[in-house]
Protein backbone atom coordinates (compact mmCIF):
# COMPACT_ATOMS: atom_id res chain seq x y z
CA UNK A 1 0.00 0.00 0.00
CA UNK A 2 1.30 3.44 -0.97
CA UNK A 3 2.03 5.62 2.08
CA UNK A 4 -0.20 8.67 2.45
CA UNK A 5 2.89 10.78 3.21
CA UNK A 6 6.29 10.03 1.73
CA UNK A 7 9.37 12.11 2.60
CA UNK A 8 12.60 11.36 0.73
CA UNK A 9 16.08 12.81 1.46
CA UNK A 10 14.56 16.05 2.75
CA UNK A 11 16.98 18.86 3.58
CA UNK A 12 16.55 22.46 4.65
CA UNK A 13 19.36 24.98 4.96
CA UNK A 14 18.46 28.56 5.84
CA UNK A 15 20.18 31.66 4.47
CA UNK A 16 22.25 31.88 7.63
CA UNK A 17 23.77 28.50 6.80
CA UNK A 18 21.89 26.72 9.57
CA UNK A 19 20.97 23.16 8.52
CA UNK A 20 17.55 22.52 10.02
CA UNK A 21 16.99 19.16 8.28
CA UNK A 22 19.68 16.73 7.12
CA UNK A 23 18.40 14.10 4.72
CA UNK A 24 15.13 13.04 6.37
CA UNK A 25 13.36 10.05 4.84
CA UNK A 26 10.07 8.84 6.29
CA UNK A 27 6.88 7.11 5.14
CA UNK A 28 3.60 7.55 7.04
CA UNK A 29 1.05 4.79 6.64
CA UNK A 30 -2.59 5.61 6.02
CA UNK A 31 -4.71 5.45 9.17
CA UNK A 32 -1.87 5.54 11.70
CA UNK A 33 -1.00 7.99 14.45
CA UNK A 34 2.68 8.89 14.21
CA UNK A 35 4.33 10.78 17.07
CA UNK A 36 7.40 12.85 16.25
CA UNK A 37 9.46 13.55 19.36
CA UNK A 38 12.48 15.75 19.78
CA UNK A 39 13.95 18.57 21.88
CA UNK A 40 13.48 22.25 21.02
CA UNK A 41 15.23 23.14 17.77
CA UNK A 42 15.37 19.52 16.59
CA UNK A 43 13.53 20.28 13.32
CA UNK A 44 9.99 19.11 14.10
CA UNK A 45 8.18 22.28 13.07
CA UNK A 46 10.40 22.78 10.00
CA UNK A 47 9.58 19.25 8.86
CA UNK A 48 5.84 19.82 9.28
CA UNK A 49 6.00 23.22 7.57
CA UNK A 50 7.67 21.70 4.51
CA UNK A 51 5.25 18.76 4.41
CA UNK A 52 2.35 21.24 4.46
CA UNK A 53 3.86 23.32 1.66
CA UNK A 54 4.47 26.37 3.86
CA UNK A 55 8.28 26.27 3.58
CA UNK A 56 10.30 25.32 0.52
CA UNK A 57 12.85 22.55 1.04
CA UNK A 58 16.48 22.90 0.02
CA UNK A 59 16.46 19.37 -1.35
CA UNK A 60 14.49 16.15 -1.39
CA UNK A 61 10.85 15.39 -2.11
CA UNK A 62 7.53 15.22 -0.26
CA UNK A 63 4.38 13.60 -1.65
CA UNK A 64 0.92 13.44 -0.09
CA UNK A 65 -1.37 10.79 -1.53
CA UNK A 66 1.01 10.58 -4.48
CA UNK A 67 0.90 14.35 -5.15
CA UNK A 68 4.16 16.30 -4.98
CA UNK A 69 3.80 19.08 -2.41
CA UNK A 70 5.76 21.47 -4.66
CA UNK A 71 4.82 20.50 -8.21
CA UNK A 72 1.17 19.65 -7.42
CA UNK A 73 0.61 21.93 -4.45
CA UNK A 74 -3.17 22.38 -4.69
CA UNK A 75 -3.97 18.66 -4.82
CA UNK A 76 -1.49 17.80 -2.08
CA UNK A 77 -2.49 20.67 0.23
CA UNK A 78 -6.18 19.85 -0.15
CA UNK A 79 -5.54 16.51 1.58
CA UNK A 80 -3.83 18.14 4.58
CA UNK A 81 -5.15 19.70 7.76
CA UNK A 82 -2.73 21.62 10.00
CA UNK A 83 -3.15 22.57 13.65
CA UNK A 84 -0.25 24.97 14.31
CA UNK A 85 1.40 25.75 17.63
CA UNK A 86 0.44 29.42 17.62
CA UNK A 87 -3.10 30.62 18.29
CA UNK A 88 -3.53 32.57 15.04
CA UNK A 89 -7.19 33.55 14.62
CA UNK A 90 -9.19 36.67 13.73
CA UNK A 91 -10.34 37.92 17.13
CA UNK A 92 -13.57 39.49 15.86
CA UNK A 93 -14.91 36.58 13.78
CA UNK A 94 -17.43 34.13 15.16
CA UNK A 95 -16.52 30.48 15.56
CA UNK A 96 -19.00 29.46 12.85
CA UNK A 97 -17.71 32.02 10.34
CA UNK A 98 -14.01 31.26 10.79
CA UNK A 99 -14.51 27.49 10.43
CA UNK A 100 -16.82 27.91 7.42
CA UNK A 101 -14.37 30.31 5.77
CA UNK A 102 -11.52 27.81 6.21
CA UNK A 103 -13.54 25.22 4.30
CA UNK A 104 -14.10 27.68 1.47
CA UNK A 105 -10.37 28.38 1.19
CA UNK A 106 -9.92 24.84 -0.08
CA UNK A 107 -12.61 25.22 -2.72
CA UNK A 108 -15.09 23.02 -0.89
CA UNK A 109 -18.80 23.62 -1.27
CA UNK A 110 -20.72 24.88 1.73
CA UNK A 111 -21.72 22.03 4.02
CA UNK A 112 -23.38 23.30 7.20
CA UNK A 113 -24.03 19.74 8.37
CA UNK A 114 -20.31 18.91 8.32
CA UNK A 115 -19.39 22.15 10.10
CA UNK A 116 -22.00 21.41 12.75
CA UNK A 117 -20.63 17.90 13.27
CA UNK A 118 -17.07 19.21 13.66
CA UNK A 119 -18.17 21.85 16.18
CA UNK A 120 -20.22 19.37 18.16
CA UNK A 121 -17.36 16.84 18.22
CA UNK A 122 -15.11 19.55 19.63
CA UNK A 123 -17.68 20.78 22.19
CA UNK A 124 -17.85 24.10 20.32
CA UNK A 125 -21.48 24.04 19.20
CA UNK A 126 -22.66 26.22 22.08
CA UNK A 127 -19.94 28.72 21.15
CA UNK A 128 -20.71 28.86 17.43
CA UNK A 129 -21.93 32.49 17.56
CA UNK A 130 -19.25 33.68 19.99
CA UNK A 131 -16.40 35.85 18.73
CA UNK A 132 -12.97 34.33 19.09
CA UNK A 133 -11.71 37.11 21.37
CA UNK A 134 -14.21 36.00 24.03
CA UNK A 135 -12.94 32.40 24.14
CA UNK A 136 -10.47 30.85 26.56
CA UNK A 137 -7.11 29.64 25.31
CA UNK A 138 -8.31 26.05 25.37
CA UNK A 139 -11.41 26.88 23.33
CA UNK A 140 -9.32 28.81 20.80
CA UNK A 141 -7.17 25.72 20.35
CA UNK A 142 -10.31 23.68 19.70
CA UNK A 143 -11.23 26.22 17.01
CA UNK A 144 -7.84 25.68 15.35
CA UNK A 145 -8.59 21.97 15.18
CA UNK A 146 -12.07 22.69 13.79
CA UNK A 147 -10.53 24.89 11.06
CA UNK A 148 -8.07 22.11 10.17
CA UNK A 149 -10.93 19.60 9.87
CA UNK A 150 -13.32 21.89 8.00
CA UNK A 151 -12.31 20.66 4.52
CA UNK A 152 -12.29 16.94 5.49
CA UNK A 153 -8.54 16.25 5.19
CA UNK A 154 -7.11 12.74 5.03
CA UNK A 155 -3.86 13.74 6.76
CA UNK A 156 -3.84 15.88 9.90
CA UNK A 157 -0.73 17.49 11.38
CA UNK A 158 -0.95 18.43 15.06
CA UNK A 159 2.00 20.60 16.08
CA UNK A 160 2.02 20.68 19.89
CA UNK A 161 -1.81 20.59 19.95
CA UNK A 162 -2.19 20.58 23.74
CA UNK A 163 0.49 23.11 24.63
CA UNK A 164 -0.79 25.34 27.41
CA UNK A 165 -4.11 23.54 27.95
CA UNK A 166 -5.27 21.91 31.16
CA UNK A 167 -5.26 18.18 31.84
CA UNK A 168 -9.00 17.75 31.27
CA UNK A 169 -8.89 19.42 27.86
CA UNK A 170 -5.79 17.40 26.97
CA UNK A 171 -7.69 14.19 27.64
CA UNK A 172 -10.60 15.47 25.52
CA UNK A 173 -8.11 16.01 22.71
CA UNK A 174 -6.84 12.46 23.08
CA UNK A 175 -10.38 11.14 22.73
CA UNK A 176 -10.89 13.28 19.64
CA UNK A 177 -7.67 12.04 18.06
CA UNK A 178 -8.73 8.43 18.55
CA UNK A 179 -12.15 9.16 17.04
CA UNK A 180 -10.54 10.79 14.01
CA UNK A 181 -8.29 7.78 13.53
CA UNK A 182 -11.37 5.55 13.68
CA UNK A 183 -12.83 7.71 10.88
CA UNK A 184 -9.75 7.01 8.74
CA UNK A 185 -7.79 10.23 9.31
CA UNK A 186 -4.02 9.80 9.45
CA UNK A 187 -2.28 11.94 12.06
CA UNK A 188 1.25 13.19 12.63
CA UNK A 189 1.67 14.53 16.15
CA UNK A 190 4.54 16.54 17.58
CA UNK A 191 4.55 16.99 21.32
CA UNK A 192 6.63 17.77 24.37
CA UNK A 193 4.23 15.70 26.46
CA UNK A 194 5.73 12.25 26.14
CA UNK A 195 2.66 10.69 27.75
CA UNK A 196 0.67 11.78 24.68
CA UNK A 197 2.87 9.70 22.41
CA UNK A 198 2.78 6.80 24.85
CA UNK A 199 -1.01 7.03 25.11
CA UNK A 200 -1.94 7.45 21.45
CA UNK A 201 0.81 6.73 18.93
CA UNK A 202 1.12 3.63 16.76
CA UNK A 203 4.70 4.52 15.81
CA UNK A 204 7.26 6.90 17.26
CA UNK A 205 10.01 8.85 15.52
CA UNK A 206 12.80 10.67 17.34
CA UNK A 207 14.44 13.66 15.65
CA UNK A 208 17.54 15.42 16.92
CA UNK A 209 19.67 18.08 15.28
CA UNK A 210 17.74 17.78 12.02
CA UNK A 211 18.31 14.02 11.77
CA UNK A 212 15.78 11.25 12.26
CA UNK A 213 17.62 8.97 14.66
CA UNK A 214 14.91 6.37 15.19
CA UNK A 215 11.53 5.26 13.82
CA UNK A 216 9.86 2.31 15.50
CA UNK A 217 6.53 0.78 16.42
CA UNK A 218 5.75 2.07 19.88
CA UNK A 219 5.18 -1.37 21.37
CA UNK A 220 8.39 -2.71 19.80
CA UNK A 221 10.31 0.32 21.03
CA UNK A 222 9.13 -0.30 24.56
CA UNK A 223 10.14 -3.97 24.30
CA UNK A 224 13.54 -3.36 22.70
CA UNK A 225 14.72 -0.40 24.72
CA UNK A 226 12.68 -0.66 27.89
CA UNK A 227 14.34 -1.75 31.08
CA UNK A 228 12.58 -3.43 33.95
CA UNK A 229 13.39 -2.70 37.54
CA UNK A 230 12.84 -5.01 40.47
CA UNK A 231 12.40 -3.22 43.80
CA UNK A 232 13.04 -5.49 46.77
CA UNK A 233 11.80 -4.25 50.14
CA UNK A 234 13.69 -5.83 53.02
CA UNK A 235 12.33 -6.59 56.48
CA UNK A 236 15.50 -5.10 57.95
CA UNK A 237 18.11 -2.83 56.33
CA UNK A 238 21.39 -4.32 55.14
CA UNK A 239 24.51 -2.33 56.10
CA UNK A 240 26.37 -3.38 52.95
CA UNK A 241 25.93 -5.74 50.02
CA UNK A 242 27.54 -9.16 50.67
CA UNK A 243 30.00 -10.51 48.08
CA UNK A 244 27.54 -13.32 47.28
CA UNK A 245 25.22 -10.71 45.74
CA UNK A 246 27.85 -8.99 43.60
CA UNK A 247 27.04 -10.96 40.44
CA UNK A 248 23.51 -9.54 40.42
CA UNK A 249 24.75 -5.93 40.27
CA UNK A 250 22.25 -4.77 42.84
CA UNK A 251 22.02 -1.23 44.12
CA UNK A 252 20.86 -0.36 47.62
CA UNK A 253 18.84 2.61 48.82
CA UNK A 254 20.56 5.11 51.11
CA UNK A 255 19.03 3.53 54.20
CA UNK A 256 19.69 -0.03 53.03
CA UNK A 257 16.00 -0.95 53.29
CA UNK A 258 15.55 -1.48 49.55
CA UNK A 259 17.52 -3.22 46.82
CA UNK A 260 17.17 -2.42 43.13
CA UNK A 261 17.76 -4.92 40.34
CA UNK A 262 17.61 -3.55 36.76
CA UNK A 263 17.60 -5.73 33.65
CA UNK A 264 16.84 -5.41 29.96
CA UNK A 265 13.31 -6.57 29.19
CA UNK A 266 14.32 -7.82 25.73
CA UNK A 267 17.65 -9.37 26.69
CA UNK A 268 18.32 -12.93 25.55
CA UNK A 269 17.41 -15.38 28.27
CA UNK A 270 15.33 -14.75 31.36
CA UNK A 271 16.91 -12.92 34.30
CA UNK A 272 18.07 -15.19 37.11
CA UNK A 273 15.46 -14.07 39.62
CA UNK A 274 15.39 -17.46 41.31
CA UNK A 275 19.15 -17.34 41.87
CA UNK A 276 18.82 -13.79 43.17
CA UNK A 277 16.26 -14.82 45.78
CA UNK A 278 18.38 -17.79 46.84
CA UNK A 279 21.45 -15.58 47.23
CA UNK A 280 19.44 -13.05 49.22
CA UNK A 281 18.28 -15.79 51.59
CA UNK A 282 21.84 -17.10 51.86
CA UNK A 283 23.03 -13.62 52.80
CA UNK A 284 20.46 -13.48 55.60
CA UNK A 285 18.31 -10.84 53.92
CA UNK A 286 14.58 -11.23 54.60
CA UNK A 287 12.40 -10.04 51.71
CA UNK A 288 9.20 -8.29 52.71
CA UNK A 289 7.88 -7.29 49.28
CA UNK A 290 8.87 -7.26 45.60
CA UNK A 291 7.53 -4.90 42.92
CA UNK A 292 8.46 -4.37 39.26
CA UNK A 293 8.23 -1.43 36.88
CA UNK A 294 9.19 -0.83 33.26
CA UNK A 295 10.77 2.21 31.63
CA UNK A 296 8.33 4.79 30.34
CA UNK A 297 8.63 6.17 26.83
CA UNK A 298 9.90 9.41 28.36
CA UNK A 299 12.83 7.61 29.99
CA UNK A 300 13.60 5.84 26.72
CA UNK A 301 13.45 9.14 24.81
CA UNK A 302 15.80 10.88 27.24
CA UNK A 303 18.24 7.96 26.97
CA UNK A 304 18.18 8.08 23.17
CA UNK A 305 18.79 11.80 22.95
CA UNK A 306 21.59 11.79 25.52
CA UNK A 307 23.31 8.79 23.93
CA UNK A 308 23.41 10.44 20.51
CA UNK A 309 24.32 13.92 21.67
TrEMBL record:
Q: What is this protein called?
A: ABC transporter ATP-binding protein
Gene Ontology molecular function, alphabetical: ATP binding; ATP hydrolysis activity
* Signal peptide boundaries: none
In the record, the note on similarity to other proteins reads: Belongs to the ABC transporter superfamily.
- What InterPro entries does the record point to? AAA+_ATPase, ABC_transporter-like_ATP-bd, ABC_transporter-like_CS, ABC_transporter_ATP-binding, P-loop_NTPase
Q: Where does the ABC transporter domain start and stop, copy by copy?
A: 5-234
The alphabetical list of record keywords is: ATP-binding, Nucleotide-binding, Transport
Q: Does the keyword Cell membrane apply?
A: no
Q: One Pfam family, short name please?
A: ABC_tran
> Which CDD domains does the UniProt entry name for this protein?
ABC_DR_subfamily_A
